[in-house]
Amino acid sequence: MNGVTLEQRIRSDIERRIGSGELRPGDRIPFEHELVVAYGCSRATVSKAIEALAKAGLVERRRRAGSFVAHPHHQSAVLAVPDLERLIAERGESYCWTLVAARPATATDPEFAHINGPAVRIDGVHRADGSPFALETRLISLSAVPAAEAGPFEKRSPGSWLIEQIPWTEARHDIRAVMALPDEAQALAMPKGGACLEVQRWTWQSGAPVTYVRQLFPGDRYHLSAEFKPNAL
Amino acid sequence: MNGVTLEQRIRSDIERRIGSGELRPGDRIPFEHELVVAYGCSRATVSKAIEALAKAGLVERRRRAGSFVAHPHHQSAVLAVPDLERLIAERGESYCWTLVAARPATATDPEFAHINGPAVRIDGVHRADGSPFALETRLISLSAVPAAEAGPFEKRSPGSWLIEQIPWTEARHDIRAVMALPDEAQALAMPKGGACLEVQRWTWQSGAPVTYVRQLFPGDRYHLSAEFKPNAL
DNA sequence: GAGTGGTCTAGACCACAAA
DNA sequence: TTGTGGTCTAGACCACTCC
Q1: Span B197-214, mean pLDDT?
Q2: Which of A69, B45, B102, B154 is least enclosed by beta carbons within 10 angstroms?
Q3: What pLDDT score was predicted for residue B74?
């Protein structure tokens, strides 16, 4: 066990056999009890290794039948949704948040129904080295975060403040391309009708809505990256 | 144990205490041996529950110190990148692939350097109910997939064919918003200069490049969704 | 040094789906 | 019916790290 655990060894052995084509989609991998004999270990260790492969989507486990190499019909990747302040700082640029408006939310606000209760609406601009980087419109539920009524949104971006107030447990993201409306284009200092990446995020804490946010990025200044590595634990 | 395992119960109990604010970022959660006593179970069960919380990023485990509620500095979400054929079928629309060109790749092709060897280039259009849904430009490494030289790309989309040929083990995605070029807009039956979602994907098998693909979607016809649910096993 | 999490063992019983 | 994976137990030893 020189630095690598037995579980990791079992796992990477099977991964290699799948990657090399020795085991093809639909093939059955050895039964747990066979691997127990092959590696001379307990069933718990084998089971943990296969469970990790199943979580990674590489194999599919079926009771009474065995574990099989998955048919990769859909891909999944881990999408990192960074804190903008951190992201801009990591680019070596200076970050700045400009508040445009903070006021009680009304029924006409976008996704007011998601919050389903009293809320504040915050509008502002994220800037990198002084130039606009993203427009943000956000609703924060006052039931979930009462302190948001008098939040420090003049000085701090709602995202970084909010994350200190309350941890979220569920989120949904929606990513699309849109054309900037005239006022949005002006606020982002980009050509009217230019392509923008729109990221919407709905966040819950234990099932209760916390916040909704829509961020609009100039297409030429922002992109999202996602990685897939089944090796990663 | 009415449908829910003990491990899940321990896990959701701790999640709730974090979500409710009873346990705040930086707080120590009970030691494993304390939870063993509290739940009257074995340490393996407790450990598995906490391990799942750690993988979800909700807690951080430190030897000799204990397990602590994590400071949520970055968000991550699982992005599903679906097979287009399947996606369109699930929408209840009919799928169709139109080949535009298939020919040996040359050094001037985009991302030829990624393949780093002989390759074919395939251009085509994905259609839903007859109307253009996405433009695709793809390079396939002939070293990794020799059969691609005479692939059935007249009849089948390269993505669905390729996934049967070779399983990938690593992928990188890049998502951005771009304006459609005149010829792209025409091929997608959309206004010139309209906003498009551009998805690029680089794929490897055990470190060796397999394929590069660029897909261009009309902004009003496609969006990506990502979910984050620490509850999900 | 002491006590935590990390890993592993050698069993066990059960639910469930395939034969 | 049968045998698989799903879950759990009651231990054990180790590595690491904080005191």
Answers
A1: 92
A2: B154
A3: 65
Cα–Cα distance, B77 to A59 (Å, whole number) = 21
For B45, counting Cβ atoms within 10 Å of its Cβ (0-12 exposed, 13-18 middle, 19+ buried), the class is middle
Angle, CA A99 vertex, CA A95 and CA A104 arms, to 5°: 140
Strands, DSSP E only, in chain A? 28-29, 59-62, 66-69, 74-81, 95-104, 119-128, 131-141, 170-179, 195-205, 208-218, 224-228
Distance, CA of A89 to CA of A127 (rounded, Å): 11
Nearest CA in chain A to B223: A176
Q: Is A174 on the interface with B (CB under 8 A)?
A: yes
Give A136's strand partners: A124, A215
Q: Of A185, A148, A182, which Cα lies nearest the Cα of A164?
A: A148
- Are the beta carbons of B76 and A79 closer than 8 angstroms? yes
3-state secondary structure of B113: helix
Which of the residues A58, A173, A199, A205 would you substitute to probe the B interface, choosing the one with the greatest number of B C-beta atoms within 10 Å? Answer: A173
Helix ranges, chain A (H) = 6-19, 32-39, 43-55, 84-90, 112-115, 158-165, 182-187
DSSP state of A7: H
Task: Compute and round to an integer the Cα radius of gyration of chain A.
Answer: 24
Report the alpha-carbon distance of residue B198 to residue B155 in Å, rounded. 24
Tens digit of each residue's pLDDT (9 = 90 or more) over B55-79: 888 899 999 999 999 887 666 777 7
Give the strand pairing for B59-62 and A59-62: unpaired
- Across the interface, do A206 and B20 touch by the CB < 8 Å criterion? yes
Place of tokens 């807009």: B185
